[in-house]
Structures are given as C-alpha cells and as structure tokens.
Amino acid sequence: MNKVNLEIVGLTYSESSTGAYVLILGDKISQRRLPIVIGSAEAESIAVGIEKHKNGRPHTHDLFLRFAHEFGVEIMEVVINRFRDGVYYAMLVCKQGDDLTMVDARPSDAIAIAVRTGCEIYAYQSVMEEAGIIMDDMEKPTVDNSEDAPINKGNTEPTLDLLDLDALEALLQEAIDNEDYQKAAQIRDEINRRK
Fold it and tell me: Domain boundary residue among 80, 113, 131?
C-alpha cells in the first residue's frame, strides 16, 4: 500500500472542543494536511518530545521507549493506516532482531513516540485521500454571505446540512485559508458523508 511521508506542521488549541488540541500533519511533498484532534496530555507529550525537554521523571511515552530499548525493540516508523467514522488509527512498526511487528496505537501516542525516536511518520494514501485537506493558496473561493444564504440564526456560520456541495467546498477552502483545521475537518466530514 502506498504511503505518504508526513511531518508535524502545527499543534494548536482547539477552540471548538474544550481541552482538545489539533495536531496538523503535512505531506512533505505537497500542500495536503491531515488535522487530528488529540487530548491535552498527548499534546503536551508531543510538544515536550519536539522540544527535547528532559523531565526529572519520565512521561508515559519515555517509559515506553525505555522499556522497548531494554528488550531490544526498535521503533522503525509510525503509519496512520485507517480513517473510519471520523477516527484515525495508527500502528507502530517495530523491529526486534530480524522480526518485524505491527503494534496498534492511537495516532497521538504513536506520534509522541516518533518525535522522541526521530522515526518517520507516514499515512496510507487512502487515508490522505479520504481525510486530507489540500492547501491551495492560488484559489480562494468566497462564501455567499447574502441574506438568501442559509445560516444558523444564533451564529454567523452557515449550517452545513443546508449547504450544497459547491458551497461546502468553498467553505472548506475558507477554513483552510484561515488555518481553522478543526472547522475544515468538520466540513470535510460533511462532504464525505454526502459522497
């Protein structure tokens, strides 16, 4: 199965989900992005791993790596291998001697381990096609904000289920342009639901 090499593009607080963060992974050779909502503990662990900050006591991911090291297990790569019902799935590809083993993991935990080991992060092409968002700075479609456009009366945001696919695509591009990946993911899910 074809894999896409990813890098961490950003980690930001989610304004729409209390206590959650959005981890933004980017394709190294294109403008595709993969936004993943993660918990605050995982976000902290990823940030600590990126900054190579040493604590007096090990985080859970540090403990996992010490345990793996003691038993001669090397983490070769992380692969985000599925996207189902709005949830991402990942696996750690591990090597012990000549044996390769795939270990199921949450993407946030797998990436927290990857930033500590320096191993590559991948996603299957199928995951990128289904859940990825393409950044295109050349096109900036606008959303119809006229009085006839369907809106949620308590909010200035259009109600997604009332918009047609063209309007959803335009709204998706606007969310991407504004780097509102949480909103972009919701719009993408609505588009995918209709297809």
Answer: 131
H or E stretch including 2? Answer: none
Domain housing 57: 3-131
Backbone angles phi, psi at 120, to 5 degrees: -75, 150
Query: By the 8 A CB rule, do 31 and 134 touch?
Result: yes
**Helix-strand-coil percent breakdown of the chain, rounded to 5?**
35, 30, 30
Overall number of domains in the chain: 2
The mean pLDDT of the chain is 81
What pLDDT, in 10s, does the model give residues 22-34? 899 999 999 899 9
What lies within 8 Å, CB to CB, of 147 at 6+ separation is none
Please say if the pLDDT value at position 157 is more than 60. Answer: no
In this predicted model, what pLDDT tens digit does every residue of 23-62 receive, in sequence order? 999 999 998 999 999 998 898 889 888 887 776 777 789 8
User: In whole angstroms, how far apart are CA 90 and each of 51, 102, 123, 193?
Assistant: 23, 10, 8, 22
Neighbour order of strands in the sheet with 87-96: 99-105, 87-96, 73-84, 120-124, 3-13, 20-27, 32-39, 133-134
Number of H-type helices and E-type strands within the chain: 6, 8
Residues 89 and 157 in one domain: no
